[in-house]
Amino acid sequence: MRGQIYTLEAVIAAVLLVSSLVFALQVTAVTPLSASTSNQHIENQQRASAAGVLTAAEEAGVLKDAVLFWNDSAAEYHDAERLTYYTNDYPPNEFGNITERAFAGRGLAVNVLVYPGDGADATRLVYRGEPSDNAVSASRSVTIYDDDELTAPGTSTTAGGASSFDDAVREDSRGTGVYNVVRVEVTVWRM
User: Fold this and answer.
1) Crossing angle, helix 94-103 and helix 37-59, to 10 degrees?
2) Ramachandran assignment for 178, one of left (phi > 0), alpha (psi -120 to 50 degrees), beta (any other)
3) Which pTM value belongs to this model?
4) Phi then psi for 59, rounded to 5 degrees?
5) Which residues pair with 188 in a beta bridge?
6) Helix (H) or strand (E) segment spanning residue 22
7) Range 83-89, long-range pairs (CB < 8 A, 24+ positions)
8) Long-range contacts of range 158-161, CB-CB < 8 Å, 24 or more positions apart?
9) How confident is the model at residue 155 (pLDDT cuts 50, 70, 90)?
10) Contacts of 187 (CB under 8 A, 6+ apart)
């Protein structure tokens, strides 16, 4: 009789333990975007990739060219898709190639914004939507001079001589020969 009571007690304890585990799993929602150490590791990798894109573009001398890839007569970045910025593709230049090699085909969305030095709103260079809560970013400063040539094909004007480039980068009118010091920010998140 005593053995049967111990067995019944063990079965009841096991049922309670399994029930509490099932209840705990039902109460907590574990999604692919839940915080975890693996998510932090992925975000660190994405931040390093964004910083790497900016470093590679800067060292190759194409980061400034990307900001200057403005079509003054169309008042947009060269060959942008019906907007002043790129939404479906990357810019058709070396900066776009570097960015595409780093992020395309990995299930990541990328925004590239250009912030003028005067604190005004950013200009979109590449825009894929509103970043999620787990988005990461990296940025670099770029100095644009009045006599820097715009780099879009068929454009033969300087930043200071362009009529619509001020819409994108906003001239700093202190008369120092510096058009503006902008901050290029790359933001990356999982789709």
Assistant:
1) 160
2) beta
3) 0.77
4) -70, -30
5) 110, 136
6) helix 2-27
7) 84/123, 84/124, 84/167, 84/168, 85/123, 85/124, 85/125, 85/126, 85/127, 86/125, 86/126, 86/127, 87/126, 87/127, 87/128
8) 159/68
9) confident
10) 50, 110, 111, 112, 113, 131, 135, 136, 137
Written as six digits, the tokens of 81 are: 């898709």
Q: Give the pair of three-digit tokens for residue 44.
A: 């660190």
Chain centroid, CA 166 distance in Å: 23
pLDDT in tens, 23-36: 887 877 666 555 55
Cα–Cα dist 71/77, whole Å = 6
Q: What is the DSSP letter of 148?
A: P
- Spell out the residues 6+ positions from residue 47 whose beta carbon is closer than 8 angstroms to its own: 136, 137, 138, 188
CA distance 58 to 52: 10
